[in-house]
Write a structure and sequence with these properties.
Helix content: 25-40%
Strand order of the largest sheet: 3-4-5-9-10-11-12-13
Strand content: 15-25%
Oligomer: single chain
Radius of gyration: 23 Å
Shape: globular
Number of helices: 15
Largest sheet: 8 strands, parallel, barrel
Distance between the termini: 62 Å
Length: about 575
Amino acid sequence: MASLAAVLSLGLAGCGGDAEAASDAAMTDLGPRGMDVQAGEDLGPEAGAPADLGRDGAGPRGEAGALEGGVDAGVDGASAVTPDAGRDGGLDGAVDASGDRGGDAGEGLVEVRHEREFRAAWVATVSNLDWPSRQGLSAAQQQRELDGLLDVAAATGLNAVLLQVRPEGDALYRSQLEPWSRFLTGRQGGDPGYDPLAYAVEAAHRRGLELHAWLNPYRARTSATNSSVAPHISVTNPAACISYNNILVMNPALAVVQDRAVAVVEDIARRYAVDGIHFDDYFYPYPVAGVPFADDGDYQRFRAGGGTLSLADWRRDNVNRLIERVGRTVATVRPTARFGVSPFGIWRPGNPVGISGLDAFASIYCDAPHWMRQGWVDYLAPQLYWPSTQTAQAYGPLVRWWAETTRDGRSVFGGNALSRLGSSSAWTAEEIGRQITLTRAERGRGARGNVFFTLDALRTNRLGVADLLRREFYQRPALPPPVASRRGVTLAPPRVAASGRAVTLSHPSMASVRGWVFYVPSGVNGWVVERIVASGATAVTLGPGRWVVTAAGWDDVESQGVAVTLP
């Protein structure tokens, strides 16, 4: 296990070496920072953050989600309620606001709901960690690989995928603002012959998965010695970038950097039907002892202009202003999408009591609880890349502390390091199960799901973890929690026409519907989710008996249900 000094010497703010360099080939298990890493490895949500990470290494990504009252989310947590019953503060279930009561062949409207849970995985493209498997594949080969990953996600019981589309100031989609990523073709600016993000959105939605666009806000290049092409910011605005420990970082203090990031977010949110915008944990670079970040001139200009903030507060304010602008942009341009961030798993040592490690507030100027209090993010997914048995960074106390930062229907999703599986006796598939259970135990405090780093570990079923999730945790499907700002929105119920064992589905506003949720009876007057089907399927064959069907919106608001009995 690498010591902290050794880990820091590797340049933990960097992300992978140049694809052509030997460091790319040397990449092994890219988990949280503080793990065994090799020079040139990418350590962001792609891998995790640095740290005094305690005996077993600590790294970003973590937080957790759980189910109300300790119910096993989406498993047996659905129930029938009376028409005037509350709906979890407006979070679960929505009523008809249009006057169209739906249910052409139905037997009436029924109030149903289930425990919501975000079940997601990161798909890292930096240094070809997850996808595509290597640079230079044909468009058809890349698409087949992506289809395979999405099939794994759906088969495992996930309901969302976070696809990295801006790993180093570039684009894995057609953009006028930034060049094509080299991780597609091997050459920055090289056209892959199709639009990967457009393909991914359509392919994910067809499988009933949400597709969130994951962006790195400040990383310009994983190696300062790599070359870039216009319109990369290092070419159009070279003074906006700072070389730090052999990576190239966009200076968070500069308006051109913030404006570029906001423009990229707006462009994606406007042109693609993404379900979310996601930022990773790279803000100011993770510090390397004795290596200052060269922004003194910018800070002195701030002071000369009348600014009174300390250097640390000024840096935090630079990051805060970007998060605020991005949150407002997403809410304005695509209000059904959620904006979230996956910060390092420890905000400050001692929070909660007994926790030690890197101080993200003071070291990378990340004040994630402040963003939650201000309502700038819909969720946080702190990277909790430690086992539940590691006292100084214990998963259970940390996920509870993060859950308590939530408010106004916002959520915390636990980030879980599948990349650590098998690295020590502590990292078993059962440990991941314990972490999900600990997350679910904090449902009432605001923890409502998990995000796994990365999907490739599920693809390979490392130590049987995919089997475990399917068998014990995700037996039944679940919708993610509704977008927080949409809690007051209502959705009309579906129209249901039955013929034998088949039902035909429609809706007064089909464009607003993500999918159909099918409930079956459970116990006395109870219901559980049997399946969730993408809205593209308008004819569904069911078994005999009584069913309730609801419509789910792109914001994950759910309508009342229409009851129907089939012979």
